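Q: Could you fold this chain for me?
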Amino acid sequence: MHPDHAPTAPMTEMSAELWNSAASVLETNWAGDHMVPSRRLYPHQWSWDTAFIAVGLAYVNPTRAWRDLRSLFEAQWPDGRVPHIVFDPAMAEADYFPGPAFWGVPSYGSRPAHGSTGIVQPPLHAVAAWEVYRRAAAHGAASAQQARAELEWLYPRLVAQQDYLTGQRDLGGGGLASIVHPWESGLDNSPAWDAALANVPADLSLLSVYRRRDLAVSHAAHRPTDTDYARYVGLVISYRAGDYSDTGLLERHAFAVECPSFNAILGAAELALAQIAGVLGLGGKADTHRERAQHITSAIVARLWNPETGMFHARDVRTGRLTAARCVSGLVPLMLPDLPAERVAGVLDAMRSERFGTPVPSYDRTAADFDTMRYWRGPVWINANWLLRRGLMVHGLRDEAEDLRAAMVRLVHRNGHFEYFHPETGEGLGAPSFSWTAALALDLLADRSVPAYAKAA
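A: Sure. Below is the predicted structure, expressed as structure tokens.
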């Protein structure tokens, strides 16, 4: 670890303890050329975990932060997609389900067969790369020069990722990317997908053939149900049957949804790419990225806003209907600086209401099916709140951003670096020693600055 990468804010005894414990988690979970989310439950490399982790890892080991991003993008598909899991060949098939043989991905580029999954996750990586660069640039010319070289390597790959998502994945034709599996959202069992998943057969016999491993190492009450899991497995089989092609997908695949948080991150990635292009001397491309971010923002407003609830909702591309569920995903577009003022006000009203509050849970607290322990159906997640904090800063709401930052820091300090947390008691749930919780704790302790593309306060 690198002690010279200390937090910029004054260290209290509490923050020093949290800093050291977070750094220890990241040291434990480093796997040679990538970070695992947790040793026990997630033994491979996950896509959007890598992005969140890089943001915090940059404070204590920037070399590893860059290596983690490179390791992920070395597994990028020729069509530009970045797989949601890159499998560690040192791990056995039985160590995780669904494992590499189940996905059956053929070899591509320099990747061996069965090296990754065939689906994606939110494209937060450009934001992460920009944040890692910002940290490096603050530590002298040599560090900045190395970081610029890393950006040069990553930039065309990040652009290819965006091109894939805004092109082949615009299944609804309205300028937004569609997810074709709930796992692609990063919010696996969110109530946002319930309506669309209702049309996916729940063949529980699949779980006799393909046995869940997660329940052997975590509490069943904390995890998605067997019904959900059977649908997840069935959707993989469906997508795999078409060789993971997106051509004609609506005719042969039962799930396609436009997710507000996925697309907000897609727009934020364009803004980060504009910053990266500027550093690389690609001014014209920077303008193009900003224009694309504006188009994505406009499409989110046009397609996903529900005036009756005053927030954003997921759209089932197959039916054209917005889900009724009020989920944290519907608040994440706050991170877009070009979001119209009346939409910002609506999201803020929802966040401040009894339905959510601080820290923000993953689902409406007043909903009849709100579940305090089951994954994305109620618990508090640090990564989702970190995104919302960025949104508050983008729109100049620094006092509220600071309140949210302090609430997250207290939650992790008191309860540990868990995957997620009970929304009422703060009890740690899911996997312990979780990498993105630790990494984002470092960022929350160290960085209180406004993103470079934010609106002026």
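A (continued): Residues 81 and 161 are 5 Å apart (CA to CA).
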